């Protein structure tokens, strides 16, 4: 009888130990895992510290297929936009990513609606500027009115536009590829755009076909220059206006 009771007590102890061990193991994996718990795909924007310029305006798009696109502008040095495309992988702890492309790499902590830039060893950057290495996630839903419509040119450099011909001058956006395209009066044009939240937008790599026309060439030239100088826009009552800073609009478009 004593042997039976001793055997039962041993079994109960073993079950209790296994239960505690399982609980401890579960607790060790209960930490934050951004790969699973955070809605991380989307666009992030911020100005990172720079040793020899006014800051590095940085835009990063993270995609669900683990690809990324990144653009940077060195403020106070040049208006040139540098672009990088590649893939990224998660660190084992699921809270950091490493970006990889042919000409750059970088590491970030993925947080709730933010990316935190890390040093070359994958560690947080400390010091007085430590809190400046942050990119904030943009609410892309506010871009939809711009990109979900096609826009017909109605005014350019303060004057109403009358196109000679039966084809409207227009532009349209491809949000998935960050591309803009349209017809400028004689030639088709194309390029890229970066939406920077609220009413901020920049166009780059603007090009066109090379057909020569007798009509509408001045309109075409002025429109393409306006796009390259634009940094902001507004949409009011179905009218898209593009401009630079607080200047009068370069051009206005009607929703088609």
From TrEMBL:
Segments forming domain DUF306:
144-253
- Superkingdom, natural source: Bacteria
Q: What name has this protein been given in UniProt?
A: META domain-containing protein
